[in-house]
Amino acid sequence: MKAKWMMPTIMLMGMAMLLTSCWNMRSLKDLAIIVVMGIDKAPKNNEYQVSFQIVNTEAVAPGAKGGGGNVTPVTVYSGTGNTLFEAIRKSSQKVPRRLFFAHVQMLIIGESFAKEGINELFDFFERSHELRLTSTILVSRGVDAGTVVRILTPLEKIPANSIAGKLKFTSKVWSENIEVDIEDVIKAVVSKGREPVISGVSILGNTEKGRGVSNMEQTTPPATIEINGIGLFKDGKLKSWLDGREARGAVWIQNKMKSTILELDCKKKKDAIAIEIIRSQTNVEAEVQAGKPRINIHIREEGNVGEIKCPIDLSKKEEIEKLEQAWVKETKKEVMEAIETAQSEKSDIFGFGEAVDRANPKAWEKMKEDWNETFAVSEVDVKVDAFIRRPGMRVNSYLSELK
Q: DSSP labels for 290-340?
């Protein structure tokens, strides 16, 4: 009987010795939770300069009173090094807690750094077991990334949440920006048929005052963070910015148009009709004829009439058709403006090269090494189908009754 239970007992004791319990446990009070990283080049020695936006958990917790005074919701530390890893480890000399990267939701790259080249930047992110490749990436415009990281924001206590919210919602309702993460940029960097695009972020107002708690306590903040334009890259270097209609055209081509407002002329009145785009689908196909690529873009979009500032009878089918044709013309114009700008920079940010590879792999093998040169002179045909679905809550405006 004793022998019967001896072997199971020995096995259980052996298994118990293998249990590691919480050997790598880290207490929350020992962690500095980073939500945003800003990366610049140090002006004097050309090293990496990394800025960390760290959450002050005591200040943002429900019911927190700030320890008897105005405590900022975040604290920013920075460090320098020849590599990102070195800069991060050297920062431990300043931070009283262990840097914790699992909650980094945003990476901001300084404009000057982006112009020098970002191709070597992301190896550390791929190797780290804490950092996520799904973190959003932005490029600062007109200021370094460290300055953006230090600005405090109203409505959202944690500035990272404010910036992320602005990018998310403006991409959905205005569509002059694109949400991309680190993994998207890495894929574009290694692709022969696509260049990266990254949205920009800038500061409006007084940057010095924007660092203080008072920036969160006024109806009109002295400094405001704004999502601003799309950065166009070539060979990993920031070449120029797409703004306004060019940026929106790029969003259309990349099939990331969610919604926007397009303004059309009404008789002799300019920009008198606002069309809200509610659905859009873009297909990009390529063909190779006589060794030369031809890109065909087909956009199908639907929308509603959001506002008019002129007397027009929307109950008439011919009036609706006129608006749809004007809408088609305006869409083509914005798309071609984006293409012409990209071709002038010889930067295929649209993935036309990938479309050529899918259509004719053999032809692509011959042209991929000099694709940017080929892209710059490639013929592009744009076809647009636009449909107005609803005129709003009423067909005819009260403006038609005015003399």
A: TTEEEEEEEEEEEEEEEEESS---TTSHHHHHHHHHHHHHHHHHHHHHHHH
CB contact at 8 A, 152 and 196:
no
| Joined tokens for residue 282 | 């873009």
Cα 236 to the center of its chain, rounded Å: 16
| Helix H or strand E segment including 384 | strand 379-390
- For the chain, count helices (H), then strands (E): 14, 13
pTM for this model (two decimals): 0.91
Q: Rounded distance, CA 322 to CA 127, Å?
A: 56
Rounded to the nearest 10°, the torsion over CA 6, 8, 14, 17 is: -110
Rounded-to-integer distance, Cα 72 and Cα 348, Å: 43
What is residue 181's DSSP assignment? B
Strands 106-109 and 136-140: parallel
| Tens-place pLDDT, residues 313-366 | 899 999 999 999 999 999 999 999 999 999 999 999 999 999 999 999 999 999
280 vs 302: CA distance, rounded Å:
6
pLDDT tens-digit readout, 81-121: 999 999 999 999 999 999 999 999 999 999 999 999 999 99
- pLDDT number for residue 68: 44
| The two three-digit tokens of residue 338, written as one number | 């984006």
Beta strands in 17-174 (DSSP E): 31-41, 48-55, 74-81, 98-100, 106-109, 136-140
C-alpha–C-alpha distance, residues 92 and 29, integer Å: 16
Tracing tokens 């259980």 back to the chain, one arrives at: 12
CA dihedral 234, 236, 237, 243 (to 10 degrees): 60
For 330-340, what is each residue's pLDDT tens digit?
A: 999 999 999 99
